[in-house]
Amino acid sequence: MRVRFTVNGRMETADDVWEGESLLYVLRERLGLPGSKNACEQGECGSCTVYLDGLPVCACLVAAGQAEGREVRTVEGLAEGDRLDPLQEAFVECGAVQCGFCTPGLIVQAHDLLARIPTPSDAEIREALAGNLCRCTGYEKILDAVRLAAARKAAAP
Hints:
- There is one protein chain.
- The mean pLDDT is 96.
- A hairpin with a 2-residue loop joins strand 3 and strand 4.
- By secondary structure, this protein is an alpha+beta fold.
- The longest helix is centred in the C-terminal third of the chain and has 16 residues.
- 34% of the residues lie in helices and 13% in strands.
- A five-stranded mixed β-sheet has the order 2-1-5-3-4, with helices on both faces.
- It is built from five helices and five strands; from the N terminus they run ββαβββαααα.
């Protein structure tokens, strides 16, 4: 089947998609967007989190055909050209990136949080990121990055 949808503001077409193929597979393997990671394939780790029509979802759980005519935004789509999103910058500055496998999903989920709650409490940050697993960091630097991005966003004119 053919699937047409908007990815990061650009109309894309994937041909010969089989019925059980995931959105994650189409993004990574057919469209060359490797940001979202393939870890558990069961929606348990959050490494493949993307926006689907403005809501964060695990791309491994979305059949590619379900994206037909819809809008997808990946971690690559958060940046504006060569300029990283402030949250992406904060992750780098705070050392919240170690192996990097969980990072794209954490960034998308945290981006959604900051869009909904510009200055979240630590409890709100923890709750928002609870579905994203990281084996390397211990999470403190991730929390620091979200706090930094929120503070910068609040201080911006």
